[in-house]
Amino acid sequence: LGVCNFRWEPRDRRGKPLGDDESVDGLNRQLQERVESDGDAWFSSTVLNGRVALRVTVANRGMVQGDIDRLVQVIRQTADRILAERI
After folding, report:
1. What is the structure's pLDDT at 1?
2. Calpha distance 52→73 (Å, rounded)
3. Dihedral (CA of 34, 57, 45, 52) sign
4. Which of 52, 62, 69, 75 is close enough to 25 for a disulfide, judged by CB 3.0 to 4.6 Å?
5. What's this model's pTM, rounded to 2 decimal places?
6. What whole-number distance in Å separates Cα of residue 30 and Cα of residue 33?
């Protein structure tokens, strides 16, 4: 299976992290839950080296680049909404 683990680590415009490890763990959990509840896509989360990571599994042989591009777009838009709500 093709598994991609990644972690969203939001930063401000100067590149400074927006929170400590624990708060970023919470943001990653919130991102996964929000995308799933919106019904736009589905991916899971896991813990790697003590930190929350997001996990996408590409198992459908019918997937094309456009499917991956759409997933990235959904993740980015959802992340932007989560950050906007924090302001």
Report:
1. 65
2. 21
3. negative
4. 52
5. 0.89
6. 5
